[in-house]
Amino acid sequence: MWAALYAREQEEHRLDVVAAEEWTAGDAATIGGLEASVRQLTAVIGGDFTAAPSAELRGLLQSDVVGRAERSAELANRRTDRAMALLWQLRELHHDDESKPGVCSCGRSLTVCTENGVLGAQAEAIRDWESSNLARLAAGERHALPETHPAVVAPPVTRRPVPGDSKRNDRRR
Ligand SMILES: [Zn+2]
After folding, report:
1. What is the pTM of this model?
2. What are the angstrom distances between the C-alpha of 34 and each of 29, 38, 66, 96?
3. Does residue 83 register a pLDDT over 80?
4. Contacts 24+ apart (CB under 8 A), 37-40
């Protein structure tokens, strides 16, 4: 009887050891995988992007890199938009008065208004920026035109109202 109990103990102990070894093997695989990822990341940080062999890791890194680039490009675009909106507003204050030759819209002579000269040099860039933003406004996209812009104050009617469509428009507002 003691021998049977001892044998059973031995068997249970053996099974515990097997289970423990399996757990350890699993942990080792996880640690091994993480170590491989660290090696790949180290290679990438070191500038050797092509050395990252794991497609999964490369995909993650690329989406992160692309995401960061897209966010900084978006920030740069918004900064440019703010500066151009400011130039547009200044140009509104200082442009050639069509009704009075040789006079700036601010009332001073063109030879006296230095702002007109400075802004006049950027007139084409300001016009191009305004045109692209007007197109965005018309398309219902995000635009950077100032709130004082005539097209923003009174948006142009882009389509004729369709009979029975007014209710749908009201609901959208
Ligand atoms: Zn002026």
Report:
1. 0.56
2. 9, 6, 24, 67
3. yes
4. none
